[in-house]
Every structure is written in structure tokens, then in C-alpha cells.
Design goal:
Elements (H helix, E strand, L loop, with lengths): L2 E5 L2 E4 L4 E8 L8 E7 L2 E13 L2 E6 L7 E6 L4 E6 L8 E8 L6 E4 L3 E6 L1
Parallel strand pairs: 2-11
Antiparallel strand pairs: 1-3, 3-8, 4-5, 4-9, 5-6, 7-8, 9-10, 9-11
């Protein structure tokens, strides 16, 4: 059974940093698309970041407009983990952050975690 478990959320002041982790189990995701999302007003979820394989253990990352330059997605395939380094956090970043994984490097996400709460105080 595939599971994604997020951790690393918490309460920080504006301008601070957090590193979210997502532990995957049940299968390997080294060639799969993996991403982070958060809820947003007026829509089901907001895309935060994702990373997909383009072959030969090479990955390409994409970021949502609101986090570009502040957030970085990475992974450790040996540990079956994906991370989201979040810097210069702002109150509008407050949300539950969800990890997601696909079954390949393209297409929709098949697996979702339960989320980790991030709260930024001003």
C-alpha cells in the first residue's frame, strides 16, 4: 500500500524558513513526478512545486508563481523522500501543505499525503 507522510510543518515568524519532508512507502518514486500543493481561496488547491524525471537521474523542477525564488523542491531517492525548503516565509504562505506523487514522470498525481500545517506569524 502506497503512503505519503508529510512532516516538518510548524509555526514560524515572517521571514523565517521551514523544511517540509515527505516520506514515501509502498513503492519507489525515483522516476515519478512528485509535488507539493496547498489549498487556495476559490480553488481546490494551489500548485506549489513539482519535480519530474527527464531520464538518467536528472530532474526538472517547476514552481508556482507565488513561491518562485523562495521555495526549493528536492528528493533523496535512496530514502524515498521528497523535500520542500521554504525560505522567506510570509503570512500568505500559511496553509496545510500536501505531498503528491504520480505513477510516472507525466500525468496526474495518483497518491496524496494527509498534509502538514504551516503557520506564519506577522
Amino acid at each position: 500500500q502506497v503512503q505519503l507522510v508529510e512532516s516538518g510543518g510548524g509555526l514560524v515568524q515572517a521571514g523565517g524558513s521551514l523544511r517540509l519532508s515527505c516520506a514515501a512507502s509502498g513503492r519507489t518514486f525515483s522516476t515519478s513526478r512528485m509535488g507539493w500543493f496547498r489549498p487556495a481561496p476559490g480553488k481546490e488547491r494551489e500548485f506549489v512545486a513539482d519535480q519530474r524525471s527527464i531520464g538518467s537521474a536528472t530532474y526538472v523542477a517547476d514552481y508556482g508563481d507565488s513561491v518562485t525564488g523562495r521555495f526549493t523542491i528536492s528528493r533523496d531517492n535512496a530514502k524515498n523522500m521528497v523535500y520542500l525548503q521554504m525560505n522567506n516565509l510570509q503570512p500568505e504562505d500559511t496553509a496545510v501543505y500536501y505531498c503528491a506523487a504520480g505513477t510516472s514522470s507525466v500525468g496526474s498525481y495518483a497518491y496524496w499525503g494527509r498534509g502538514t500545517q504551516v503557520t506564519i506569524s506577522s
